């Protein structure tokens, strides 16, 4: 095996095994930052040994053993050797390297602890996202930086500060107590969906989508659903992401341009992802979670998925689902989406009335989709001059180049008439 082959093998194994590796080490050393350092040391050892000896039969277990050996070496050099060694190797003896073959239950518990630690509320949202992608997604600092269009040094600093913040706050490596678990789980789901959304509709840059981020978020969601199978909102989020991801190929035209939902070729929608999404939604509902925020959004996505052509879309049901969503997760953006559904179900005049009530909403100031929606409704009413102005305003607010061009094209299609 060449050094290049070894590096490729290590990278592939790291992407698959890194979360379990870091989680298992963190349970022992009770320090997420140190756990990742030990895991990285194991990678270096692999790069040194695998070219000569080949990839081991169980590379994940090999890396875990190498990392635990390194942990024991570090402790032996510490003045508090016996106390700390006992903390790490209590069940296996001070002079014995812990066996790499952990039970499935132990691995699952460790992963769940790592999920809650990476998304701990002492960290900023940006830090939670970076740490989650780094430790659970297996992404490199450079990959995270490229995904979010920020300098690599910025991401590196976020990760370093996050580790220090967790250590300073003495955050325990554990699943939160029952009385705070719901709130903490909601934070975890929010981080995963934020990652998905950045991939699904990129905030800035030249690309309309960044599919790799969608895939990472989906993988994290599926893992979480396996770890907490009785939590309906987890299945609701997975359902939402699966169904939205099913449209990925149809959302981009031949030249990378955005294709809006009603203009998409539905034959290009991924039916496997749709079936998986509908199954996850059914699971969420069977667990009593039909009224959860993610389950409601998944139900909305399901309405689109079930419509073979745009004209078959049940906009009345969608409007009702948005109304229910506004009760459990009220926000101006939900109200804007509700207005769109009302406009589709009962006519653009009704929709425009609701949108106009949101024009002075502080939370929507600078939100490009507000004038975009308003422009769409005005265009349907034949008020081309006003629609053009709204599309141009929306184009000036977005930071995504593909979306800006789409909005300017829509403005041009409205003609050059002045607002009435």
TrEMBL record:
<dbReference type="InterPro" id="IPR007627">
    <property type="entry name" value="RNA_pol_sigma70_r2"/>
</dbReference>
<dbReference type="InterPro" id="IPR013249">
    <property type="entry name" value="RNA_pol_sigma70_r4_t2"/>
</dbReference>
<dbReference type="InterPro" id="IPR046531">
    <property type="entry name" value="DUF6596"/>
</dbReference>
<comment type="similarity">
    <text>Belongs to the sigma-70 factor family. ECF subfamily.</text>
</comment>
<dbReference type="InterPro" id="IPR014284">
    <property type="entry name" value="RNA_pol_sigma-70_dom"/>
</dbReference>
<keyword id="KW-0804">Transcription</keyword>
<keyword id="KW-0805">Transcription regulation</keyword>
<dbReference type="Pfam" id="PF08281">
    <property type="entry name" value="Sigma70_r4_2"/>
</dbReference>
<dbReference type="Pfam" id="PF20239">
    <property type="entry name" value="DUF6596"/>
</dbReference>
<dbReference type="Pfam" id="PF04542">
    <property type="entry name" value="Sigma70_r2"/>
</dbReference>
<protein>
    <submittedName>
        <fullName>RNA polymerase sigma factor</fullName>
    </submittedName>
</protein>
<dbReference type="InterPro" id="IPR036388">
    <property type="entry name" value="WH-like_DNA-bd_sf"/>
</dbReference>
<feature type="domain" description="RNA polymerase sigma-70 region 2">
    <location>
        <begin position="21"/>
        <end position="79"/>
    </location>
</feature>
<feature type="domain" description="RNA polymerase sigma factor 70 region 4 type 2">
    <location>
        <begin position="116"/>
        <end position="166"/>
    </location>
</feature>
<dbReference type="InterPro" id="IPR013325">
    <property type="entry name" value="RNA_pol_sigma_r2"/>
</dbReference>
<keyword id="KW-0731">Sigma factor</keyword>
<feature type="domain" description="DUF6596">
    <location>
        <begin position="184"/>
        <end position="284"/>
    </location>
</feature>
<dbReference type="InterPro" id="IPR013324">
    <property type="entry name" value="RNA_pol_sigma_r3/r4-like"/>
</dbReference>
């Amino acid at each position: 095996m060449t050094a290049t082959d070894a590096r490729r093998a290590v990278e592939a194994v790291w992407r698959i095994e890194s979360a379990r590796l870091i989680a298992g080490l963190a349970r022992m050393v009770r320090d997420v930052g140190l756990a990742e350092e030990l895991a990285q040391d194991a990678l270096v050892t692999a790069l040194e040994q695998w070219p000569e000896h080949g990839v081991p039969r169980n590379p994940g277990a090999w890396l875990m053993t190498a990392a635990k050996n390194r942990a024991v070496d570090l402790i032996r050099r510490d003045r508090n050797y016996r106390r700390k060694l006992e903390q790490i190797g209590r069940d296996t003896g001070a002079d014995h390297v812990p066996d790499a073959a952990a039970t499935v239950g132990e691995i699952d518990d460790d992963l769940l602890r790592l999920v809650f630690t990476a998304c701990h509320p002492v960290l900023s949202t940006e830090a939670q996202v970076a740490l989650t992608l780094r430790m659970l997604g297996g992404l490199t600092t450079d990959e995270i930086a490229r995904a979010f269009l920020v300098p690599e040094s910025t991401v590196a600093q976020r990760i370093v500060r996050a580790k220090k913040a967790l250590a300073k706050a003495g955050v325990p490596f554990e699943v939160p107590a029952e009385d705070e678990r719901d709130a903490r789980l909601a934070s975890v789901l929010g981080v995963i969906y934020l990652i998905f959304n950045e991939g699904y509709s990129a905030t800035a840059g030249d690309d309309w989508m960044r599919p790799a981020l969608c895939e990472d978020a989906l993988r994290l969601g599926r893992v979480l659903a396996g770890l907490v199978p009785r939590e309906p909102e987890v299945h609701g989020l997975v359902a939402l992401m699966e169904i939205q991801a099913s449209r990925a190929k149809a959302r981009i035209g031949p030249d990378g341009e955005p294709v809006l939902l009603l203009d998409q070729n539905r034959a290009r929608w991924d039916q496997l992802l749709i079936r998986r999404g509908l199954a996850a939604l059914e699971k969420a509902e069977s667990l009593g979670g039909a009224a959860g925020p993610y389950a409601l959004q998944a139900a909305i996505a399901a309405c689109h998925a079930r419509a073979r052509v745009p004209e078959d879309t049940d906009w009345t049901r969608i409007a009702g689902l948005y109304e229910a969503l506004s009760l459990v997760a009220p926000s101006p953006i939900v109200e804007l989406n509700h207005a769109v559904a009302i406009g589709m179900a009962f006519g653009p005049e009704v929709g425009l009335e609701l949108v106009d009530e949101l024009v002075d909403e502080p939370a929507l100031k600078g939100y490009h989709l507000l004038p975009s929606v308003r422009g769409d409704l005005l265009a349907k009413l034949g008020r081309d001059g006003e629609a053009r102005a709204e599309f141009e305003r929306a184009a000036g607010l977005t930071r995504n180049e593909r979306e800006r061009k789409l909005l300017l094209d829509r403005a041009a299609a409205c003609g050059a008439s002045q607002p009435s």
